[in-house]
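Both lines are given unchanged directly below:

***
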Amino acid sequence: MKLLELGDHISRFRVCQSCVGLVGSLCVIYSVWTPFWLKGQGFWTTGNATETETSNNNDVIHALKAPRVFAVLSFLMALSTGSLCLVFALCWTSKTVLSYSNTRSLLMAGQALYPTTVLLLTMASTGFFFLLTWSLFTYQHREEIRQDFSSLGSSYWLGALGWVLLLVVEPIVFTAEQAVVPDILPDLEKAVELRRNFSQHKAAKSSFCASHCSGYS
């Protein structure tokens, strides 16, 4: 059994998007839970001066809490996205979607299951919420960043890499896949038709044998 299926364009694009999503999700997870955003501080480590300056301003306090809320949400979504990427990269094969039960139900609904579309939606959602987190942090510390640009740490830059992968690179790869890979729905319809004909032929043959044998008994 191969670890990665790379035999056709569909499989290669699926694995490529899974790798992009996995790396992007890991960047988001690292960025959320490490304190190396600005001068050795992150979402969960803030200076006393900031707390003192904002203690009498409820609006600012809520604004400071907003990135943390989006950060936790981004972390949970990144975990889900990373897990989904591993499933599609390691467990999904070109034969999975051709299973008769899956194919028949999907065709009855006039749809096909496209793993790369699922990956695009989950990555875009994760990247969007983390971009909100990253943008809010940048906006709230814009003066400090402007004064000392070199004070930005690895958490900040890896976070930027994460949302770029999820929101920019992934749509580019998905668009390339749509241009290169043909629609699999006609092949699924043919597969279902062949299975249906085979089942009908087998049932007719069994019925004929049963009636033929009963005629001799």
